[in-house]
Amino acid sequence: MSERKFEGIARAEIINLPIYSPGLGSEEVKRRYKLEEVIKLASNENPLGPSPLAVEAARKELSNANIYPDGYCGKLREKLSRRIGVSPDSLFFGNGADEIIDLIFLAFFNKEDNAVMGDPTFSSFYLSGMSVGAKIIYVPLEKYRHDIEGIVNAAKKGAKAIFVDSPHNPTGTIATREELEYALGNVPEDTLIVWDEAYGEYAEDGEFPQSISYLEDHPNLLILRTFSKIYGLAGLRIGYAIADSEIISLLERVRPPFNVNLVAQAAAAAALDDEEHLRASKEVNREGRNYLHGELEKMGFKVVPSQANFVLFRFDHLTSKLSDRLLSKGVIVRDGTSLGYPGYVRMTVGTPEQNKKVVSVLEKIIKE
Ligand SMILES: *Cc1c(COP(=O)(O)O)cnc(C)c1O
Description:
The protein is α/β, with parallel strands linked by helices.
């Protein structure tokens, strides 16, 4: 059989897509560098783990694993709708927010339709877009922040959707209330505004908008959220969208019938009840973020002020790649190169112990 036999068979749009690389896992790093202990601060996961209530609910639900899940996510839908004060038919659940991004492109985009987004931004936005042949219009960030006016101006020339992550990944900056209002008021009415708040629960800036309050007057607004970050359920894959019921109903047409598994549904519903876990997660993050920001600056790093559960920082006074040096000492971070910030590192805020360890490792590296 000749090599590359199937390249001519696959759709042209996907040939040049990169294969997603999540980086090394903890076990692999332990083996490679012969380390006893490894700290993984690469994927913005909750360092406190999932809520014990969620774990208990998941365990119970496992004995029903022979049954297909409720494709409508009925129980979770009811609970979440009451919790956030929207009608049940304004909610849509996905196998992670990532799947919802895919389904948005599948439902709304023809080949060559424009998708406007920041540069850099969350990779799923452009990877999902490219996979359906959408034309990606990139609007460079300004001082680590989304240029909302630039995004709106691009959308005015014609776009199916704009994509804004706030807090932004990988900088941690937010788009303000004023900026959301500007987008809502100036983007064409038939352009979807995908407003991704994966890290929204961590944002404490008074300018962070209450995005849900705009849904009623703006049927083109779609808010994305996830149970992967503050709720600590990344491994179970569940996220949701909040939008006008007509948009939700269009997404429902392209949704795989059983896209959210029953364990994830049960765990997410229980996690919503665990306000103590939520409070502690927020508190540990706030303190850790402040601590890391301060210590990193003391060491001479340039740190981007973050409203999320990670910090992006620059290390131009060091010669070789900082992420590799951290890795060899048992700290897994995300190198900025693949995130659009070469010369930077994105590091998740850990537990107080993890943060202290990381700071001491960095101090050692600087002295080497
Ligand atoms: C982590 C993340 C998500 C959520 O992804 P899931 O598929 O729900 O795990 C969405 N948007 C951004 C910007 C993220 O960083």
